[in-house]
Specification:
The complex is a heterodimer of chains A (113) and B (111). Chain A is mainly β and 113 residues long. Chain A has strands at 3-5, 10-14, 19-21, 24-26, 32-39, 46-52, 60-61, 64-69, 74-79, 88-96, 102-103, 107-112. In chain A, strands 2, 5, 6, 10, 11 and 12 form a six-stranded mixed sheet that branches. In chain A, strand 8 and strand 9 form a beta hairpin. The chains are: A mainly beta (113), B mainly beta (111).
């Protein structure tokens, strides 16, 4: 069984500031992938960042970076220099071989001017 | 040029009707999925097909029947629609190890 937990239903950040969204997971597999997806009001699911579990180096994509702590089963997303367009639902997700992508319940991010 | 396209985007129908949602991907991916997103935004896997073969079938009422005529298409047929079926349904495709590419979703409203 695998579970993904996002403990922050809502977060708020001011424009240009930095915010971190939390995610913890549980899996018995040693080989898996972790993702963050963004869902703006348009409802389109957009892949933000991807991390392979076997890689120790944290993934980064422009203003988005992760803090992957494999032993602690933690996978947080840091958004730097927040922009109004970052306002969305953010979903943490996990997949390992033979299973489908398993999502957390999401964190709603509000960006204030 | 849309990678994963699903139609229709919106569907309003009466209880008891039968409806279908179509999905097509032009990415050459082997695996396709149907997800349901409920009113609380929770995304749950319903079905997965790999090269036209059903590989994941979660606990879904048998009123829901997926059909995959080829690996680029995965349709979802729903019989005898109920109020509780109202949700957003997402189609997605993937190659192993990479993230899923999602369609834009179909908002189904049963009245």
């Amino acid at each position: 069984a695998q579970t993904v937990t996002q403990s922050q239903p809502e977060m708020s950040v001011q424009e240009a500031e930095t915010v971190t969204l939390s995610c913890t997971y549980d899996t018995s597999e040693s080989d898996y992938y972790l993702f963050w997806y963004k869902q703006p009001p348009s409802r389109q699911m957009i892949l933000v960042i991807r991390q392979e579990a076997y890689k120790q180096q944290n993934a980064t994509e422009n203003r988005f970076s992760v803090n992957f702590q494999k032993a602690a089963k933690s996978f947080s997303l840091k958004i730097s220099d927040s922009q109004l367009g970052d306002a969305a639902m953010y979903f943490c997700a996990l997949i390992n071989s033979g299973y489908a992508l398993n999502f957390g319940k999401g964190t709603s991010l509000l960006v204030t001017p | 040029d849309t990678a994963v396209s699903q139609t229709p985007k919106y569907l309003v129908t009466q209880m008891g009707n039968d409806k279908s949602i179509k999905c097509e991907q032009n990415l050459g991916h082997d695996t396709m999925y149907w997800y349901k997103q409920d009113s609380k935004k929770f995304l749950k896997i319903m079905f997965s097909y790999n090269n036209k073969e059903l590989i994941i079938n979660e606990t879904v009422p048998n009123r829901f029947s997926p059909k995959s005529p080829d690996k680029a298409h995965l349709n979802l047929h729903i019989n005898s629609l109920e109020l509780g079926d109202s949700a957003v349904y997402f189609c997605a495709s993937s190659q192993e190890g990479y993230g899923y590419t999602f369609g834009s979703g179909t908002r189904l409203t049963v009245v």
